[in-house]
Specification:
The protein has 247 residues and is of the alpha+beta class. The protein contains five helices and 14 strands.
Length: 247
């Protein structure tokens, strides 16, 4: 039997506590677009605890040393919804077809380092797109599909609604926790473009969770200058009316 001195045990426990304390409680990260996919990105997360979060970002991978990052932004939108404190930073004037590295620092510490990539701004660059939806019933399959996203590493994911069955807080917390499985082993987060299904009880759900560009949840995004235009329609709106006029 090996005897470990009490002092050594106390030191290990202290280090474990310090590591836990220094880890910010920002989680359930996702990235989206509100405007030009080549020059913008929205970073969203659930701020479980801690205060005054700020996002640090750069085109260089600077790890978790936030003081070395060239740029930083506070949240531009905060929503208390579905048992979460959703924070959104809307980045603009980014470089096209470029990887950006980022982390969130708050009063309790720092998140891990993540990254995203802006879309190309010329039609000669290929795009890899994954499209699907209706992940409400079979959580094991949802997790498997999310892990496939992390391996395929697409430029974007088109998600056609019906994320959950009942649009409840616990369901959304689980869904966003499962979405973390889409993140690459290197911390790359792949953008999601969402639409409303009939299991989302209101337009407000997608505004509060994904910071979609319009409160009516129909919008369009152009990729690669003239390569492709993607229209997201709201099937819960009548056939006629403002959406038809817009389209």
């Amino acid at each position: 039997m090996i005897l470990i001195p009490h002092r050594a045990i106390r030191l290990v426990l202290f280090l474990l506590f310090a590591i836990q304390f220094c880890q910010a409680r920002s989680t359930r990260f996702r990235v989206m677009w509100r405007t030009n996919p080549a020059t913008s990105m929205v970073i969203g997360w659930d701020q479980v605890s801690g205060s005054n979060p700020r996002l640090y970002y750069d085109t260089q991978d600077l790890g978790v040393e936030s003081n070395k990052y060239a740029f930083s932004e506070p949240p531009h939108q905060i929503t208390e919804a579905k048992m979460m404190r959703n924070h959104f930073v809307r980045l603009q004037n980014l470089k096209p077809n470029t990887v950006y590295y980022f982390l969130v620092v708050d009063s309790e510490g720092s998140s891990q380092r993540y990254s995203f990539k802006t879309a190309p701004d010329t039609p000669d660059q290929p795009l890899a797109i994954i499209a699907g939806g209706d992940s409400r019933n079979y959580r094991a399959a949802r997790r498997f599909a999310n892990r496939m996203v992390s391996k395929i590493r697409p430029d974007l994911v088109l998600f056609a609604g019906d994320m959950t069955g009942g649009d409840s807080g616990p369901e959304w917390s689980e869904w966003l926790t499962d979405w973390l499985a889409t993140i690459g082993a290197d911390g790359r987060i792949f953008p999601i473009v969402v639409a409303r299904g009939n299991h989302e009880s209101s337009n407000r759900t997608l505004s509060q969770i994904f910071d979609v560009p319009t409160t009516s949840v129909y919008y369009g995004l152009t990729f690669g200058e003239s390569l492709i235009r993607i229209y997201t329609l709201n099937s819960m709106i009548a056939v006629g009316g403002d959406q038809k006029t817009w389209l």
